[in-house]
Structures are given as C-alpha cells and as structure tokens.
Amino acid sequence: xxxFQIVSxxxxxxxxxxxxxxxxxxxxxxxxxxxxxxxxxAHVTQPSGKKSEIIGPALNFTLEWEINxxxxxxxxxxxxxxxxxxxxxxxxxxxxxxxxxxxxxxxWAFSSSxxxxxxxxxxxxxxxxQPIGTPTLKISSTSFELKDGTMTACFSRLLKDxxxxxxxxxxxxxxxxxxxxxxxxxxxxxxxxxxxTGKTQTHRSDEVPAMQWS
Length: 214
Fold this sequence. Notes:
Strand order of the largest sheet: 1-2-3-8-7
Structural class: alpha+beta
Order of helices and strands: HEEEEEEEEEE
Number of helices: 1
C-alpha cells in the first residue's frame, strides 16, 4: 500500500494536512474494496437457468428444463430402458387427485426400427388408455439417445402452446412401456399401485407433486 506524508517547517500545518490525506486515502481504499465485492458477487451468483427434478425414483426418471423467453427447452430420461420400450412425459392442467391421463399434452420417445429416435406429440382426453385426442402441442429441436440402458429425449416447446400452457402448479405425468412388436408404436404401459414416494412405480405415475417451473 502507498503512503503519503506532507513535509513542512510548520508543525501544526503539517499535522493537519497529513491527517486530511489519511482520511482521503482511507476513503479511496474502502471505495475500491466495495466495487470489488460487487463484481465478485455478480459473477458468483449468476444463475444458469436450468432446473432438474427426479419425478420417478424407481427408474431415476428425470425431468430437466430451462425457460428461454417464450419457450422452454426440456429433456426427460429414464434408466433400465432398451429399444423395445418408450418413455413419455405429460403436461396436464392444475394438479388434482387421481387425474390419470385426463387432459394431458404428452410427448413420447422411442427408438424406431431403423435405430433412430422418434419423438411425437399426442393428447389424452381420457383418464387411461391410448391417447386419441387431437394434439395441439408443437415440439421442435428434438434429439434422442439410448446409451447404456438410459433413454434420453429432448425437445423445445412454446410456453403458451398445447391444451395446457406452462404454469406453476401444473401437474406432470410420466410413463414407461413396451412398443408394439408389429407397428413399433407405444402401447399400454401397465399400472402401478398408489405410492406417493414413487419408489415402487416403474410403469407410470400421476402422483408427481405440482410443478414449479420458475
């Protein structure tokens, strides 16, 4: 640290001037320290924006998302998968008990006969069974991977799109099931007993806590 001192034949004047300089220098040092702290805090606390939640513990079924303006980038994945199975995620309305698949914008993902991934948007207007409603959710920027037993699918969607625009408090459902051996398309996933923890559910769940997207 630098130190300044006034040299003068007048002792009283020299003492006063040196005291003033000491006060001024302390102010400068404190001011610089304050600026440095603000810069570091802004750098350290800068959020990534990406969120992740395990919504099916038995399969480590994981949902990841990041909101970017009017759209959301979304990935979902599950373990213990192979090319004869599919995984699916559903966006429903406000969370209600025992809702099943009712009013759900669903995206399912699976490996096609050629080995490439397929993602498809469908809509369920019934509590169970094949989703046969008219889909309005559009997805883009899709990707798919099946590696070491983990199936991962990613896509982008508009927040306002579909029967159920993205909103806090919204219900999310998930499923995992076999492909039809003839058509290669997803079939009924099977059922699991009620389990709020999700630790025994390997086929599907509508018991995921209401989502807080932001």
